[in-house]
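Figure caption, in words: inputs first, then the predicted bound structure.
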Amino acid sequence: MRTRPLKVALLGCGVVGSEVARIMTTHADDLAARIGAPVELAGVAVRRPSKVREGIDPALITTDATALVQRGDIDVVIEVIGGIEPARALITTAFENGASVVSANKALLAEDGAALHAAAEKYGRDLYYEAAVAGAIPLVRPLRESLAGDKVNRVLGIVNGTTNFILDKMDTSGAGYSEALDEATALGYAEADPTADVEGFDAAAKAAILAGIAFHTRVRIGDVHREGITEVTAADIASARRMGCTVKLLAICERAADGASVTARVHPAMIPLSHPLASVREAYNAVFIEADAAGQLMFYGPGAGGSPTASAVLGDLVAVCRNKLGEATGPGESAYTRLPVSPMGEVVTRYHISLDVADKPGVLAQVATVFAEQGVSIDTVRQQGKDGEASLVVVTHRAPDAALSGTVEALRKLDTVRGVASIMRVEGE
Ligand code: NDP
Ligand code: HSE
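Bound structure (NDP present):
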């Protein structure tokens, strides 16, 4: 074993970074044995230098992250600051100055992954980011390496711990939305700005990364159809229960049946209680990958939090250090298929629509006519009337999303429809 240590710069020492530093210390001997050389924490960049950081030598702390990555003697930079800048500039500077990079930054990778991969390739460095998708769950490496010989057709799952935590609490304990979000934030699951979680940006970034790797094409966050959970109400969850379903925020990436394009979307959906994703609780994530030869694979585990995410970062650190010692690099970007991303309107899905309507003769027929005119077939209708008003819940068969949203638009224009109480897609049947 080499005795000269590999030097690691840690950018960020918050929820994830502090756990990375802790595990690097407590598992130092095992890491050295697995890598073939010891790893040494050579510097830790933070924003607030006076904050007490347990287990970290204060002499390592700096607020000058740029100087740290420019030192020239750093072998690996671990970026766990988050956000676009200064993370992007720091990663590029790290490549220029001889370091490979491990990052957990899905926002940046989904925004500018292609340029970062190009920079890594130009300087002959590694860019690894297992922690960017679904916390501790290995997904990036299985897709990039284990399934490199197969053809992936679909990736579907729960990839955001915070929103799963909130929906789970609302469903099982009747907790309020804000109360559940506060708890998820206190547990270290939420992003620095939790809007990224609840509005679906975080899951959309992960969907972009997964779709890009799975289909060997470039998918950016802006290509992903995104809806968050802020509009999901207790009534939606109760309605899902009556149908034998639960509500989950899903990320769904699919190759079109003709193989000529892909789609990527994130939105809340009702799924049957019998579906394996329905039993994914708290901040756990679960992802199904469907591939030609492998069939259906399911990955499940803690999707957020300092320690689970640090596990994924450390796995990448070991891989990158081994590559360094072997003077090799791991897999880079694979985007050779150049498949375009189709708009949401082309996705075929099902809707659960809840309408407040006048309770008088002919209303049901009027509503049914709108569905028929848009070419959307109805699966079930449930009506409950009270005092001249009625609530009508319609579940459709599968239809293009454009036809379904056209139906909702036309329904809103009917005099007898007082309001569209909720619209949710139905998946997993
Ligand atoms: P935190 O907000 O807890 O930590 C961010 C760290 O970055 C802090 O130590 C902060 O310093 C430091 N920092 C911020 N700006 C700068 C800067 N300009 N220069 C130097 N240091 C800076 O975030 P998390 O640890 O939760 O997340 C980090 C990354 O990991 C993000 O990309 C996130 O998306 C990703 N991630 C997070 C997961 C989680 O469960 N939390 C799971 C998977 C990925 P200071 O301590 O002084 O404030
Ligand atoms: N905020 C993210 C989540 C962290 O809740 O899933 C893990 O990526």
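The longest strand covers residues 245-255.
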